[in-house]
Design a protein that fits this description.
The protein is an alpha/beta fold. It folds into 2 domains: 158 residues, HUPs (Rossmann fold), CATH 3.40.50; 122 residues, Riboflavin kinase-like (Elongation Factor Tu (Ef-tu), domain 3, Beta Barrel), CATH 2.40.30.30. The chain contains 10 helices and 14 strands. The strands form 3 sheets. It has a 6-stranded parallel beta sheet, sandwiched between helices. A hairpin with a 6-residue loop joins strand 11 and strand 12. Helix 7 packs antiparallel against helix 8. It starts with a strand and ends in a 5-residue tail after the last helix.
Amino acid sequence: MQVHRGIPEQAETAAVLTIGNFDGVHLGHQALLSLLTDKARALGLPAVVLTFEPHPREYFSPADAPARLASLREKLLLLASAGVDRCHVCRFDKRFASQPAQAFIDDILVRGLGVRHLFIGDDFRFGARRQGTFAMLRAAGAESGFGVESMPTLAVAGERVSSSAVRAALARSDLAHAARLLGRPYSIAGRVSHGDKLGRQLGFPTANIQMKHRRPALGGVYVVSVEGLAAGPVAGVANIGLRPTATANGRARLEVHLFDWAQDCYGAHIRVHFLHRLRAEQKFASLDALRAQIALDSQAARGWLAANPLPA
């Protein structure tokens, strides 16, 4: 998948387009992307996504913005796996937010991206003060020669599939429901960086994954599967949270102890899939007490994996 920052002055080819934040790329997003790619293949045109960085709610109200389900890199990988040919990442700033709805249509959709057919979600709004509507797009399409379709809401067991619903499931530690909405286990991807080596001192070395954005409040210990290593999927046990026994800096970290793994993985970009919650994060009276609990967590994780083996 080609990734472009911003919008060209003039499109080189026509395109089938969809627009959105696509945080988490859940089942609703996947259904929309399936419509996009099917239409693009039928017309012999590229399937194109326009998305934003940062998330508009992070721009307008950073203190109240929702936790991200996926980083930009994760989102791009998920879009690519859905069959998207090209993605334009548009910087959401004051200039973009103040753009009139008609200018968005003329400058971005028609001239910059050469839209031939447009798919949008049923709650899509655009332009300054969210004045752009589906009716406005339909009228512009009739005038400029592009089709417009609205993707109806997708429901799972009567619940609307949305990024907010996934966050809510994760907030109550309901990994199974989050996975139903996502169509896969919830995961966090990032690069393995050097930590304080405390896990190694305790006899349980960990891979420390960088988290660049605030994530849903998962705090706790989990059975996980890790992809991105040469050996294929590797099982392990992970702690995500503030590490209250070891530090008081208040920054959330993700640390994974990989089972039956002795190789160096610093610098690797890995994805951690959360499979089962073992317990909440807690503060221990000593490092010896923490060591003993990690041993119990590892034993519990191995027991769960014995009953629920990873796919080969």
